[in-house]
Design brief:
Largest sheet: 6 strands, mixed
Radius of gyration: 25 Å
Order of helices and strands: EHEEEHEHEHHHHHHHHHHHHEE
Strand order of the largest sheet: 1-4-3-2-5-6
Strand content: 5-15%
Shape: flat
Length: about 375
């Protein structure tokens, strides 16, 4: 594979992307820093396809990433291949409002090939290619310039190895007939809604102080306020206010700004500064959370009595048995909440009770909860037997 020198200008990038647009697939990776910023600080983009590979420096003076971004989100005839690409996709979404399409994630594919739920890139390359990756540059400062030869070699290796690895995984998926198993997971990974971060929804990521509508209304208002503050200053949310402090403020709101200086997690300066005034304004304008926005109670999960919880545990055991027999990651077959739903009597609207999941696990799950299937130990092995 031909490796280009580091690309630092728009013309060279555009020429590369024009050629890559003719490839069947491209492999993509990014290097970024996010410890001190709200949005990931994109430091390097690596891409390979059609027998060539390059690293692009997004921090180079005057460079325009539009040709690259157009290739990722507009060229639908080119498959975009990532490994554990969630954060890479988040970066592309932040820059374009779109996600790469069509998409293939080798970590997700590995679940269907019996290599665990979160197999590392290093282990996957070792397994398929017999190559040991030097991880010496893994925790480097990618924002610092100039980038060393060692850094660039390490970064480029992520996409050149992936370009060799992907066809091997694809061939194995085709031979095992498991490609269709991944459709739902790939669609979920590439859904733009996964990466949208509306300030009004930020409260849903927090631990709830309680279920009182007025408390949750204040939490929603405070979380949205913090989101705006963090984005405006481009700092992590916790640099504004910690999650636990937001919960305290929502549960026991201060009567005046002067009281902010007494709140655990806030400095005395909040009693008189501008950010303290904006916080108080958010609290004062907060409205009780509407009924239709109230989060579902844990108990609202389909009636898990003590017996139901035991049935769910049996289903988890069955899932482990069937996943091992099928050589597929359990998470790809069913999630915990689906098992609880089955144990609670739900039968409609569950992915595990349709398609390939029904054949691999769902039919046996129903037989187990309906008393038609049981566990047994034979020759030291767990087996299932009809009752």
């Amino acid at each position: 594979m031909h490796i280009h020198p580091l690309i630092t200008d728009t013309a060279t990038l555009a020429a590369l992307c024009n050629r890559l647009a003719q490839a069947d697939f491209v492999t993509v990776d990014t290097e970024f820093m996010r410890e001190n910023t709200f949005y990931p600080d994109l430091c390097l983009v690596q891409i390979a396809g059609g027998g060539e590979a390059a690293a692009i420096d997004p921090k180079a003076p005057g460079i325009d990433l539009k040709p690259l971004l157009d290739l990722l989100v507009e060229e639908y005839q080119v498959l975009k291949v990532f490994h554990a690409g969630g954060q890479d996709l988040e970066i592309v979404y932040n820059l374009t409002g779109k996600t790469p399409f069509p998409l293939f994630d080798t970590q997700i594919a590995a679940m269907a090939l019996g290599q665990g739920e979160q197999v590392s890139y290093t282990n996957l390359v070792q397994s398929y290619l017999g190559v040991a990756i030097d991880k010496g540059a893994r925790f480097t400062d990618w924002a610092r310039r100039p980038l060393s030869t060692n850094q660039l070699d390490y970064a480029i290796g992520d996409v050149t190895h992936l370009a060799t690895l992907f066809p091997k995984m694809l061939d194995k998926l085709r031979r095992t007939g498991r490609g269709v198993w991944l459709d739902e997971e790939m669609a979920r990974a590439g859904d733009p809604a996964t990466y949208a971060q509306a300030p009004g929804d930020a409260w849903q990521r927090l631990r709830l102080p309680n279920r009182k509508p007025e408390v949750l209304g204040r939490l929603k208002a405070l979380a949205a306020w913090r989101e705006h503050e963090a984005r405006g200053k481009d700092v992590p949310r916790g640099r504004i206010v910690k999650d636990e402090t937001l919960g305290d403020l929502a549960g026991s709101p201060p009567r005046s700004q002067a009281d902010l200086g007494k709140v655990r997690g806030l400095s005395a300066a909040w009693a008189s500064n501008d950010i303290g005034r904006r916080l108080m304004a958010a609290l004062e304008n907060a409205q009780p959370l509407p009924v239709d926005e109230m989060p579902a109670r844990e108990a609202a999960r389909p009636g898990l009595t003590n017996e139901g919880a035991l049935i769910a545990d049996l289903l988890k055991l069955l899932l482990k048995v069937r996943a091992k027999e099928s050589n597929v990651a359990p998470k790809l077959i069913a999630r915990g909440e689906e098992l609880e739903a089955i144990a609670g009597g739900v039968r409609d609207g569950l992915a595990v009770l349709s398609g390939w999941r029904l054949d691999v696990f769902g039919k046996d799950a129903l037989a187990l909860v309906e008393g038609r299937l049981g566990f047994a130990v034979k020759d030291g092995r767990m087996v299932m037997s009809a009752l």
